[in-house]
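>> received
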Amino acid sequence: MIHGSLELLIEWLQHAKGTVVLTGAGMSTESGIPDFRSHTGWWRNIDPRIVATVDALEHNYDLFYDFYCMRLERLKNCKPHEGHYILASLEEQGLISSVATQNVDGFHKAAGSNKVYELHGNIHHIRCHECQQPSTINAFLAKENCSSCGGKLRPGIVLFGEFLPESAWAKALGSIQQADLVIVIGTSLEVYPVNQLPSMTNGRTVYINMEVDEYENEFDLIIQGSAKEVLQAIKERVDIAR
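>> returned
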């Protein structure tokens, strides 16, 4: 199901001098990763205020550890889908400048995108919570302590109550402020401050998602559909136009 004008989006994409893509959980659901906020999402069954917090990490580490071990185990059987590779191809062709993402799975980089701003971190980057010393996934899964200071190991993601990575945020914000086209894919735009980014451009804005009703008046163009099918349709039209 695709509603909206793909032809108009292609025209904007081909004439834009700078295009930034902002992705959320809906970009990865077709890789087999559950999203967080839909009626079938993880957060319907697991309260993030209990698990994905600094308090849980510091005072209920067993729960924190079990949850993120489960997430890492699930990711072992997941990989980027065609939509991720299409975005990498569009970057290679010079049609998009960069990707900013709320996702922590690392799939954009794995698919070949070069300029990726991971606004919520990367679950595969393990570090010590105390001294920030990098560690390994194997050490985390083995429930080892930091080899440097003995502190607790954690994935390098943004927990509730933490600030976003300064460098990734600054680069994403700067790119969006300079862009003349911003394409938002697969995010409910409920999480602050990332949900503010689409409003920080003077360029055109496009929203691509399965659920779009809430944002009918906030974007220049809205296309209803899954991330992969819309990106496949974009690729077909771009290839035909070449």
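>> The longest helix spans residues 61-75.
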